[in-house]
Amino acid sequence: MRVLVADDERLLADTVAEGLRRFSMAVDVCYDGDGALERVGVNRYDVAVLDRDMPGHTGDEVCRSITDSGAGTRVLLLTAAAGIRDRVEGLGLGADDYLTKPFAFAELVARVQALGRRSAPALPPVLARHGVVLDVARHVATRDGHPLNLSPKEFAVLHVLMRAGGRVVSAEELLEQAWDEFADPFTNAVRVTVMTLRKKLGQPAVIHTVPKAGYRIGGPE
């Protein structure tokens, strides 16, 4: 899952981003509305976490831009205003959820995960294919009932492949969805991560390489 975090409170934004990365999310960070608009214009995000009161373009304006674009990005608005009128106003802009500051980080994670599952087509909280079970909310992966000790990046790659439902996923798509904006497009990180993931999944092989196309988990059903 790829997430944008935009908040002019730099410490808060960086802390939230780092925390979400521990749950295998690829997170880009910016500190004002102008940067947020620039990023949503060039990147495809599953979820955008936006502070309503950013300088420059406000979170409200960024939210409206995302909604008008039809990109399908889910929006979680953050604000210090806790009144019902403020929440209604925020949701009226097209936001999918609303969270007031201060908030519990566990709740933020749960809300971001829930919004990610509401992508089109909607996905269940637990994905299962070919003996592999991925519980995204609990951040747990198993194969044939045995736990898998995956790194955050391995978990993220497996999540992308499981979401694809047997469709071939290119290395470029994996890089876009499982790494943040600072990833080197010429790196061999995808190949190396897939290789280590294969070893941890064991035999028989679950992830298959499709020459000159990418990777798929199992086969088309």
How would you portray this structure in words?
With 221 residues, the protein is α/β, with parallel strands linked by helices. It has 2 domains: 2-117, 3-Layer(aba) Sandwich (Rossmann fold), CATH 3.40.50.2300; 126-217, Winged helix-like DNA-binding domain superfamily/Winged helix DNA-binding domain (Arc Repressor Mutant, subunit A). Helices cover 40% and strands 21% of the residues. The chain has 8 helices and 11 strands. A 5-stranded parallel beta sheet has the order 2-1-3-4-5, with helices on both faces. Strands 6-7-8-9 form a 4-stranded antiparallel beta sheet, covered by helices on one side. The protein has a two-stranded antiparallel ribbon with strand order 10-11. A hairpin with a 3-residue loop joins strand 10 and strand 11 (214-217). Helix 2 (33-42) packs parallel to helix 3 (59-69) and helix 6 crosses helix 8 (189-201). It is elongated, with a radius of gyration of 18 Å. InterPro entries: CheY-like_superfamily, OmpR/PhoB-type_DNA-bd, Sig_transdc_resp-reg_receiver, WalR-like, WH-like_DNA-bd_sf. This is DNA-binding response regulator, OmpR family, contains REC and winged-helix (WHTH) domain. Residues 2-116 form the Response regulatory domain. One of its GO terms (molecular function) is phosphorelay response regulator activity.
